[in-house]
């Protein structure tokens, strides 16, 4: 490689026009020897004709990561997107994003040939091609029939590829895909993103769930924002609860699962209320380590179901239920938080349950609203009657004092309840720290091979393409780009991330295409990023908590000393 040459270039979302892309990207690349290893032009208003890619491929022989999401437009040449003669030149490519380009028959055939070549290519200079880590085809108009062909092209071969098919009309021809998976549960990718899919009826959604449950190859699955057609005010059907329960209880290959909901200004993608009964299936699950259930319709009853399942589960390491407290179902309250913490007494594997400050404040606001709807000190009627009686007796001077007394009593009760809530969150933080210590003493890594937990969900771990300098953040253009999931509009980015490289998890060795001058050098081993522990500032609590007492017993004690009625 030429000294000082650029290895990675990211000009995504830079406002580049059609002519800018040609003069700044295409022309320089076609006039120099191959040197670039990572290129991203995603998210620009400009578009390049699809045939330009075939012109560029001979100059991209060292390319390992190529992100063209939203950057290609169809043309009338009829040429395949990946010409057969140029497929063999892409042996170094590990990550390809073509999201936003409509996949026609010619393009699908070229993708099939590309996938087949990468899994069946002969040795080149004594080495096979580099392992294809991710192929993103989000919002490409791919049907269920076309998805089935991509699964077949990947085949049952040992592979760690992540296939992203979010925002595609898979409902059309879905039976081709589901039948293929049922016929051969080992076919297809190791990771699959199916975020924000629409279905004409619930039967199609259930058909997909049953097929994915039977898969023996998937270790990562994201269905964020994907749900059956919503019925206003409706609840989950028995068939839906049974199918989700089966996914939790019967699948034995999944390690990472995202069933988060989506709440936006124009569209919703949430599972109906009552689906939380299916969480009972987690009790005996021995494979799932990371679960996201963000922004879903969970209730206080579902918190009980989840707590009982966690008490028996011995595999789950990370659980994300942020946003569920804001759905109005009472999922997180003083009593349910205490119940979940008590359930973790019997669980020694859960080490991450992100509930940052804004989530804890949302729980507190829910408690305050409950107090306002029905005060435990005085009912609104009794307080009004007392004040009316005093007014009738001419004690006008005492009215202000009575009101102040009621306000003071209300404030005292709020202080006690806030202290109780802070104490439960402190117990939760302590229990998670204890679990991390237990796993460390047992010699177990907090991050399994390929894990990227405790990092922002929209950031990819460095070194994902073999060099820390070549790791770009996933394109915001494509949902399911690898580890992002679907979050509520304007949401924060804290929490754990899903891995973008599944090789270590599925046992596929990573093969890198080395440059000739590097062949004699020992390649440094990639080290998993250290687990970052964030110390939560401890809150001084004025109330002594006996952990053996129930919530009801504590409230009875408060009532006995004048708080509550």
Compact summary:
This protein is of the alpha/beta class.
Which secondary structure elements does this structure contain, and how are they paired or packed?
Elements lengths: L7 E3 L7 H12 L8 E3 L7 E2 L1 H6 L8 E3 L4 E2 L10 H4 L7 E3 L7 H16 L13 E3 L7 H11 L7 E3 L9 H10 L7 E3 L8 H13 L5 E3 L15 H13 L5 E3 L3 E2 L4 E2 L20 E3 L7 H13 L5 E3 L13 H10 L13 H17 L6 H13 L3 H46 L61 H4 L44 H10 L5
Parallel strand pairs: 1-2, 2-4, 3-5, 4-6, 6-7, 7-8, 8-9, 9-10, 10-11, 11-14, 14-15
Antiparallel strand pairs: 12-13
Helix pairs in contact: 4-5, 5-6, 6-7, 7-8, 9-10, 10-13, 11-13, 12-13
- SSE pattern: EHEEHEEHEHEHEHEHEHEEEEHEHHHHHH
CATH class category label of one domain: Alpha Beta
Strand content: 5-15%
Looking at this structure, what is the CATH superfamily of one domain? Ribonuclease Inhibitor
CATH architecture of one domain: Alpha-Beta Horseshoe
| Arithmetic mean of pLDDT | 77
Protein architecture, described:
The chain has 565 residues and is of the alpha/beta class. Among the domains are: 1-130, Leucine-rich repeat, LRR (right-handed beta-alpha superhelix) (Alpha-Beta Horseshoe); 371-428 and 537-560, no CATH class. The protein is built from 15 helices and 15 strands. An eleven-stranded parallel β-sheet has the order 1-2-4-6-7-8-9-10-11-14-15, with no helix packed on it. A two-stranded parallel ribbon has the order 3-5. Helix 6 links the parallel strand 8 and strand 9 (191-193). It is elongated, with a radius of gyration of 28 Å. 42% of the residues are buried. The model is unreliable at 376-381, 448-493, 510-547 and 561-565 (pLDDT under 50).
């Amino acid at each position: 490689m030429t000294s000082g040459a650029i290895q990675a270039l990211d000009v995504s979302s830079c406002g580049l026009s059609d002519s800018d892309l040609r003069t700044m990207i295409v022309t320089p690349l076609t006039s120099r020897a191959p040197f670039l290893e990572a290129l991203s032009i995603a998210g620009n208003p400009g578009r390049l004709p699809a045939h330009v890619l075939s012109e560029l491929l001979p100059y991209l022989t060292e390319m390992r990561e190529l992100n063209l999401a939203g950057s290609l437009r169809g043309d009338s040449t009829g040429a395949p997107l990946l010409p057969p003669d140029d497929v063999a030149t892409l042996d170094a490519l590990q990550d390809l994003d073509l999201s936003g380009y409509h996949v026609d028959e010619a393009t699908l055939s070229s993708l099939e040939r590309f996938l087949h070549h990468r899994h069946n290519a002969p040795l080149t200079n004594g080495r096979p091609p580099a392992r294809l880590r991710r192929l993103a085809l989000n919002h490409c108009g791919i049907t269920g029939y076309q998805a089935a062909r991509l699964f077949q092209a990947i085949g049952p071969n040992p592979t760690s590829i992540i296939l992203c098919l979010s925002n595609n009309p898979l409902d059309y021809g879905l039976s081709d895909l589901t039948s293929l998976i049922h016929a051969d549960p080992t076919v297809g990718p190791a990771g699959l993103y199916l975020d924000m899919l629409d279905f004409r009826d619930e039967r199609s959604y259930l058909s997909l769930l049953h097929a994915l449950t039977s898969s023996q190859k998937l270790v990562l699955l994201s269905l964020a924002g994907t749900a059956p057609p919503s019925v206003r005010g409706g609840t989950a059907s028995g068939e839906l609860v049974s199918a989700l329960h089966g996914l939790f209880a019967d699948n034995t290959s999944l390690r990472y699962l995202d069933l988060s909901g989506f709440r936006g200004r124009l569209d919703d993608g949430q599972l109906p209320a009552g689906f939380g009964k299916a969480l009972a299936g987690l009790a005996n699950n021995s494979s799932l380590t990371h679960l996201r259930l963000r922004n879903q319709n969970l209730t206080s009853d579902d918190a009980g179901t989840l707590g009982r399942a966690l008490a028996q589960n011995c595999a789950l390491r990370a659980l994300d239920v942020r946003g569920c407290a804001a759905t109005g179902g009472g999922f997180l309250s003083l009593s349910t938080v205490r119940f979940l913490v008590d359930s973790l007494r019997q669980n020694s594997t859960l080490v991450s349950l992100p509930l940052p400050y804004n989530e804890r404040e949302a729980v507190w606001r829910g408690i305050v609203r409950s107090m306002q709807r029905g005060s435990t000190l005085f009912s609104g009627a009794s307080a009004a009657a007392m004040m009316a009686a005093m007014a009738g007796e001419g004690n006008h001077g005492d009215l202000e004092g009575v009101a102040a007394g009621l306000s003071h009593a209300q404030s005292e009760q709020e202080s006690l309840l806030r202290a109780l809530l802070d104490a439960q969150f402190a117990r939760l933080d302590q229990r998670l720290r204890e679990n991390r210590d237990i796993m460390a003493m047992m010699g177990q890594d907090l991050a399994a091979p390929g894990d990227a937990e405790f990092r922002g969900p929209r950031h990819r771990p460095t070194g994902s393409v073999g060099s820390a300098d070549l790791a770009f953040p996933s394109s915001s253009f494509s949902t399911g780009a690898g580890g992002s999931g679907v979050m509520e509009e304007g949401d924060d980015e804290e929490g754990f991330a899903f891995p973008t490289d599944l090789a270590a998890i599925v046992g596929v060795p990573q093969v890198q295409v080395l440059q000739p001058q590097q062949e004699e050098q020992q390649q440094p081993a990639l080290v998993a990023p250290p687990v970052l522990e964030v110390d939560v500032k401890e809150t001084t609590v004025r109330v002594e908590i006996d952990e053996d007492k129930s919530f009801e017993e504590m409230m009875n004690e408060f009532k006995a000393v004048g708080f509550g009625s």
